[in-house]
Amino acid sequence: MKEKLVVKKDGTQMLYRGDGTLGLVADKYGNKTFYEEDGKTVSSREDKNGNRTCYRQNGTVLSKSDNKGNVIRYRENGTVWGREDSQGNVTSYYDNGKTVQCRKDTKGNETYYYEDGKTVMSREDANGNVIGYQKDGKTVAYRKDAAGNMTCYQKDGKTVLRREDNKGNAIGYLDDGKTIAYKEDAKGNRTVLRNELKTQSLLFSAGNLLAQAGEKIGHFMDQVIGETGRPEQPSKMVAKSRTRTPSVVRGKKLNPKDGRVNAFNKRVDARTAAPKGKANAKSSATRRTVAQRPVRNNSGR
Hints:
This protein is an all-beta fold. The protein has strands spanning 4-7, 13-16, 22-26, 32-35, 42-46, 52-55, 61-65, 71-74, 80-84, 90-93, 100-104, 110-113, 120-124, 130-133, 140-144, 150-153, 160-164, 170-173, 180-184, 190-192, 201-205, 209-213, 221-225, 237-241, 248-249, 252-253. Helices cover 0% and strands 37% of the residues.
């Protein structure tokens, strides 16, 4: 069936689809109302000047646009999600609808901000190269190229902390940024080569669980740097040095009182593991260092 146009005495025009559902109503002043396929739910309204408001099926405002091409988009709760000017520059906002989260220009360059809406979190160019910044918005936290290779830096923003290729293989460095501390494969298996002064031995258990054995000499930089993502998943970057004791070694839990490994008798070494069910010889707690893999945040906004 063909569309049908009905004109009322007051000048109102009603356009029906071929299936008989109402598609459009225009009054004599030029204001228009568009309907969804059910002929009842309003999809958008447009005034005589060309300004349009679009709605979701539940009736909440989806967007508003003026006759110059500027657009404001809304979340379902009514807060502003983003604004786009007539040139194509886009600004998106955090949940409150006021604090700027991201700005994107017409060339495709994007700048993301921390929750204050002013301090730069990261910059991404049109080619996909990213520079992430620490909380001051100036010191570089990491660099990631378009291919997915990433380099993380220590607090000074210059000394290398970790390098990771686009396959997930990584190399961690000591405080000098040159000496290799560990190597890690794409599955998360980590081989610790050395801390500041002493080589450590390693134990692996099922499920790629890594445990390190050896006395604590010096420390590893334990820096957690989130991989900055899109507005919906902002991340926080923290840099701090600390000593940690692994909770599991070769699948065995540590004694919570003194930190000793219940699975071993004299030294924390797989070769001297005590038989199951026999008491372990008393020994002083052995401190160990765990160099964690940077944690990726797959969130925020």
